[in-house]
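Journal club side-thread
Mid-discussion, someone asked how the predicted structure for our own chain would compare to the paper's figures. Pasting it here so we can look after the session.
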Amino acid sequence: MEKKPKIIITSLIVAIVVVVGVTMTLLLMERQSKQDMLQLFELEKEEMSNDYLNYAKQYDELQEVITNDSLRRLLDQEKMRVQRLLEELQSVKTSDAAEIMRLKKELQTVRAVMRNYVMQIDSLGRLNKALDDENKQLKRQNREVVSQVTTLTEEKEALTEKMTIASQLNASNITVAANNKRGRKARRIKDVTQLVFNFKIDRNPNTEPGVKTAYLRIMKPDNTVLKNANSGTFDFEDTKLTYSIRRDFEFGGDEVDMTMYWDVKEYLFEGTYRLDIFVDGNLIGYASFEL
């Protein structure tokens, strides 16, 4: 009879020891898991910091090779945004998972914007190189024509005229008007209900005539594209770009006046906006404007 209580007490002690042991093990495992997670966030934070630093450096390098003042200002604005995001990342706590994930998504946006600028700059660079090569070749041909006998004068003049003709369309006299609901110039940005874009498609008899489509990309100061239900995409080199508005027009070689409208339905904030005009898969003109 005395052994039975002792057995019960011993069993209870063993059970308590087991429960305590399991509890301690679970607590240690949970603590180790949290430490591992914090270490992972710390490594990811360091990797993101390096990415932000690299993008800021790339913007510096792009600004060194760009001579267009408007594009340089846009690049500078984006570089400042990257630096601001880097400062936010450096100040965030490693345990703040939500903020780290937000800055990781911001990094994806920075990467996409950088890729878009690189594509535009590369396109302009290749265009300038092609025109420069063509100019050198035509100058060489011109020197050969000048050395010809008088009987080749007419051919020389025809060739000289051909040298001045570009095969690609060009947009000029680009203007932007920000109007209120009465169709007059808006004095405050909150009163803007419509953006009106006017430009000319320059005369070019060397371009194949026919119905063409003008695509306008309206970029906000944060480098996002203004778009609505009527917007879409078009082919540009090896990718597709989003356009804000489009318009078909008939081109027969002579100058064409173009007017396109954007009805403002979204919030516009102050800053420098950019307009890119594309026809036949080519960037034919661009401008920046302040709101």
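Post-session note: Residues 169-290 form a domain with the Immunoglobulin-like fold (CATH 2.60.40.10).
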